[in-house]
């Protein structure tokens, strides 16, 4: 993915150096600025102090064309990013009256007066461009130095993203940037995807395709650059869809649970779940999507076998004969979920570990089934990994089994 | 938390600079090495190349006493951390015969021959101490330079942690390190904890107490150092327990779901859940704990009101009169969960947003109830934040309501 312009990231904040916090703005910057041709070659977290921030920017500008700095623009005494840049480059801070008035008005609306120390949010580095912040108080600032660009953005992720999207992407994308298209796949392993798309590398170039795997989902990142970028990207997408199309559940910002709910909604159907080893995680993934209620009814967490019988009418004889972890029980659970009052039902039963495995049914064995008004499908899987991984894989494979069953072809 | 020895972290790996990956070894190092008196003042991710790695180590050694380097010790051509350190400090790499033999034996057990390039895992920087890696192939290396210590560890988290715990913590903890004790609290807000512990600051020192809040949980980190550290820490713990003890659900590595299940087990009880807005997330948190089945029965995701009536016997009249989001319905759901066959039941109903709020019941309104053989308790909460945050707060507050109801006093 190299070959474009080099960028670096600095997350400012002593709290990001503790044992419980990670900077995530760098992921956002990496993803969004890739479409402008920037590749990040270094990331740092530094403390809230003048010399740490100044030194990091100086060192990184020597190696890259753009340094993105996140955080340290707020109203408290800890927030010293503006001052650090001013000091490092010998540029004055200029208090901008229009910004100061907007700040005072904002504080007044919240019933508070504007403290002197918070007025620093109206200070702009001499020569920097002001990047308005519609969601917060401190604006971003973009400074062109002899050595490259320094971009200062607030650390609050929503403000960070909004300023980047509103003020910089439209401008920078024009400049010979790289266009990206992500195909999201599920219900398939990375090695299978790799094998099927490999013949396309010769045609489009290996370096323009990235495969990312994440517990039951695989992303294919396609990229194109230059004057024909849009047309080339469309051609790539078509060629890749021809070989992996049936595994694709969405594009770019799409998520698997939202895609499943959209298909159900399109059919006018609802789904109910019956979960054993996943213990509510499948339902929780669906409920995580705003507005899930029009396509999600609810369900049963039949962790104990007695609930499989009692609430899902799984016959005791089937439990006895086939065992709780079996295709027969998964099917009966899916049918039982359907009978709760939904057009579709999903059943999952498996062994998440660490205990409970046997030679015949080792840890990672999962049976799942989907019932719709038109069909009944089941899958028998053997997942690798620990308890958390087996459960996450099971949720994603079950969502995808449902997606394939309800998708309008 | 400052005042000890300064440390820095370098995560090596181009994959850590992509949009989908974060280094997490630094969190582990920060937590474990705090007990040895080290405070991390900077973290970096750098690409797999000689000059990026060498430059980072050189720059950081100028500012800290210990630089921990994670990754780049494996068998592929990308793995060049050893070479980078050798080059940076002008120290030869020495191939150690005993390590090479152990490598060859390990590859042979896997039915493979040892490729030439993988033999580099037996290369040790001249003067460095070898830190054996019982879980993997490449050992760690500890190099004392005139300017401070450089610690090289494999990037695989389990290997990284094992070498740190086995070879370094026992040795470094002795050297006037800092002892840490974490009290985990739930069902309480950070500001309430702050208010109640503030009077203790004068006695023990403000800098020895850190409060961390995380969506329904609050951690109190206590620290002590010097020859009396253990006795002082015990005294601090006692004093803090006297003011916040009833909110404490566990210590150090304890988690809230595991603590709840342990209390239930102690009583010989099981719990069943009835979830609406949390949609299975409460059950999923409990099922995430290995061996949950002896204290967790299962439950119902009553997302649609019809399931509240059908599976939990919530009276239609109560739903009509009080609304689905009400204390009465939460109680009826808890009782309904109990009737599934468990000694205890939990009911949760609320408005996670973004839609569905009203003036009387705004987004974030959540009612929850716990029924045990001895009592029935309920709580009415108004949580801040978006859909994901409201749901996570609801899960943690409900787990804690259950914890308080089943704890043996």
Walkthrough of the structure:
- The structure is a homodimer of 409-residue chains.
- The first copy, chain A, is of the alpha/beta class.
- Chain A has 3 domains: 5-173, MoaB/Mog-like domain (Molybdenum Cofactor Biosythetic Enzyme, Chain A, 3-Layer(aba) Sandwich), CATH 3.40.980.10; 178-251, Alpha-Beta Plaits (2-Layer Sandwich); 256-406, Alpha-Beta Complex (Maf protein).
- In chain A, 38% of the residues lie in helices and 25% in strands.
- Chain A has helices at residues 25-34, 50-61, 81-89, 97-109, 157-173, 190-197, 201-204, 229-244, 256-267, 281-287, 305-312, 316-322, 327-339, 387-406, and strands at residues 5-12, 38-46, 66-70, 93-95, 123-125, 129-131, 140-145, 148-153, 178-186, 209-214, 217-225, 248-251, 271-275, 296-301, 344-350, 365-371, 376-382.
- In chain A, the strands form 4 sheets. A 6-stranded mixed beta sheet of chain A has the order 2-1-3-8-7-6, sandwiched between helices. In chain A, strands 14-13-15-16-17 form a 5-stranded mixed beta sheet, with helices on both faces.
- In chain A, strand 6 and strand 7 (140-145) form a beta hairpin.
- In chain A, helix 2 (50-61) packs across helix 3 and helix 9 (256-267) packs parallel to helix 14.
- Chain A is elongated, with a radius of gyration of 26 Å.
- The two termini of chain A are 34 Å apart.
- The mean pLDDT of chain A is 92.
- At the A-B interface, helix 1, strand 2, helix 2, helix 10 and strand 14 of A face helix 1, strand 2, helix 9, strand 14 and helix 10 of B.
């Amino acid at each position: 993915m190299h070959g474009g312009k080099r960028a670096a990231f600095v997350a400012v904040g002593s709290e990001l150096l503790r044992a419980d916090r990670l900077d995530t703005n760098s992921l956002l910057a990496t993803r969004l600025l890739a479409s402008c041709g920037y590749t990040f070659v270094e990331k740092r977290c530094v403390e809230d102090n003048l010399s740490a921030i100044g030194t990091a920017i100086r060192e990184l500008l020597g190696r890259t064309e753009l340094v993105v700095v996140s955080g340290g623009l707020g109203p408290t005494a800890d927030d010293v990013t503006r001052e650090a840049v001013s000091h490092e480059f010998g540029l004055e801070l200029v208090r901008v009256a229009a910004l100061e008035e907007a700040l005072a008005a904002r504080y007044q609306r919240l019933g508070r007066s504007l403290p002197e120390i918070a007025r620093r949010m109206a200070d702009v580095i001499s020569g920097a461009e002001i990047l308005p912040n519609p969601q917060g108080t401190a604006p971003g600032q973009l400074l062109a130095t002899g050595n490259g660009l320094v971009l200062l953005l607030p650390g609050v992720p929503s403000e960070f993203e909004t300023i980047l999207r509103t003020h910089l992407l439209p401008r920078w994308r024009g400049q010979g940037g790289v266009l990206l298209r992500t195909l999201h796949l599920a219900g398939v392993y990375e090695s299978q995807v790799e094998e099927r798309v490999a013949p396309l590398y010769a045609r489009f170039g290996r370096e323009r395709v990235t495969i990312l795997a994440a517990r039951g989902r695989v992303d294919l990142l396609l990229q194109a650059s230059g004057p024909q970028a849009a047309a080339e990207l469309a051609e790539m997408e078509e060629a890749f869809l021809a070989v992996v199309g049936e595994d694709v559940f969405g594009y770019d910002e799409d998520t698997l649970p939202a895609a499943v709910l959209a298909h159900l909604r399109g059919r006018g159907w609802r789904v109910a779940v019956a979960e054993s080893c996943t213990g509510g995680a499948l339902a929780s993934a669906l409920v995580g999507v705003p507005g899930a209620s029009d396509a999600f009814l609810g369900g049963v967490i039949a962790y104990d076998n007695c609930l499989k019988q009692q609430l899902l009418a799984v016959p005791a004889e089937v439990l006895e004969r086939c065992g709780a972890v079996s295709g027969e029980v998964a099917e009966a659970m899916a049918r039982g979920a359907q009978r709760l009052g939904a057009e579709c039902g999903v059943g999952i039963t498996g062994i998440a570990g660490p205990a409970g495995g046997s030679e015949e049914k080792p840890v990672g064995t999962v049976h799942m089934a989907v019932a719709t008004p038109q069909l009944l499908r089941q899958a028998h899987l053997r997942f690798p990994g620990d308890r958390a991984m087996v459960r996450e894989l099971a949720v994603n494979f079950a969502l995808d089994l449902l997606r394939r069953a309800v998708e309008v072809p």
